[in-house]
């Protein structure tokens, strides 16, 4: 069943204007008819079953039938801090990280970033990625669309957290293979976890030292070297396994 996110609290009826994205998709793309049912997620992340009551060129009215109990979000709120990468791999990362449960995705420039965003394009890129995240959240039947941000490095390193981890291939090369498991098992439901991942060329020693000074623990992601956009997904899979799939 198709799911839509609405920026409002839901009552008995919902009116969608003809110039909105939800109307455009439901009325124009799906050609919704009276009686068709859809799922709606309200501004407070509650899920409802609704039915098309009226539809015309001026707008669409839905009758809210019932609230549907649902718990599909990761128990731990995970913020990914990543470097912009080349080509369209940023879009791909946002889409897949949304599907896998990320709560927030923060892009920031790092010492070896090769695809930094100029200030003139940041707003446009973030708007596009926000649409990608929303579509991915609807497709994966989530209750939340992750926030997508571009922060200065000092802002990203000082994000509020209950636990901070930095994925670093050098500790994996040295044979470390237990910190990720141990640290994730320490997390409690509802806590904030910030995970930092390097760019294509990896993090520098100076960056690692700065991160550890700000409370980030170094963890390995296995013996293989993962691409910059693959490592966060490996991490989210590990979080899901240890926090949801008992």
Rg is: 20 Å
Structural class: alpha/beta
Measured distance between first and last alpha carbons = 28 Å
Mean of the pLDDT scores? 94
Q: How many strands, which pairing sense, and closed or not: the largest β-sheet?
A: 6 strands, parallel
Total helical segments:
8
**What is the tally of beta strands?**
11
Q: Reading side by side through the largest sheet, how are the strands ordered? A: 8-7-6-10-9-11
Taken from the alpha-carbon principal axes, the silhouette is: elongated
Beta-strand share of residues: 15-25%
Stretches where pLDDT is under 50 for at least 5 consecutive residues are: none
Fraction of residues in helices? 25-40%
Q: What is the element string, with H for helices and E for strands?
A: EEHEEEEHEHEHEHHEHEH
Written overview of the protein:
- The chain has a 6-stranded parallel β-sheet. The chain has a 5-stranded mixed β-sheet with strand order 1-3-4-5-2.
- The radius of gyration is 20 Å and the shape is elongated.
- Helix 2 (89-99) packs parallel to helix 3 (119-139).
- It has 8 helices and 11 strands.
- Strand 3 and strand 4 form a beta hairpin.
- The chain is α/β, with parallel strands linked by helices and 246 residues long.
């Amino acid at each position: 069943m198709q799911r839509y996110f609405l920026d409002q609290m839901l009552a008995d009826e919902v009116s969608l204007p003809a110039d909105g994205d939800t109307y455009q998709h439901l009325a124009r793309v799906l050609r919704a008819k009276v009686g068709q049912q859809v799922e709606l997620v309200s501004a407070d992340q509650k899920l409802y079953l609704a039915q098309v009551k009226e539809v015309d060129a001026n707008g669409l009215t839905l009758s809210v039938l019932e609230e549907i109990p649902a718990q599909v979000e990761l128990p731990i709120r995970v913020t990914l801090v990543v470097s912009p990468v080349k080509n369209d791999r940023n879009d791909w990362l946002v889409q897949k990280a949304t599907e896998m449960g990320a709560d927030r995705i923060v892009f920031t420039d790092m010492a070896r970033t090769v695809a930094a965003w100029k200030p003139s394009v940041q707003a446009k890129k973030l708007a596009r990625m926000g649409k990608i995240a929303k579509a991915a959240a609807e497709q994966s039947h989530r209750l939340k669309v992750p926030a997508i941000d571009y922060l200065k490095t000092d802002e990203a390193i000082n994000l509020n957290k209950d636990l901070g981890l930095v994925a670093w291939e050098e500790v994996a090369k040295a044979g470390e293979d237990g910190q990720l498991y141990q640290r994730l098992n320490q997390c409690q439901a509802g806590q904030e976890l910030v995970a930092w991942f390097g760019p294509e060329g990896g993090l520098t020693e100076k960056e690692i030292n700065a991160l550890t000074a700000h409370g980030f623990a170094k963890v390995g992601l296995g013996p293989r070297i993962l691409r910059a956009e693959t490592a966060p997904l490996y991490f989210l899979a590990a979080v899901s396994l240890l926090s949801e799939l008992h």
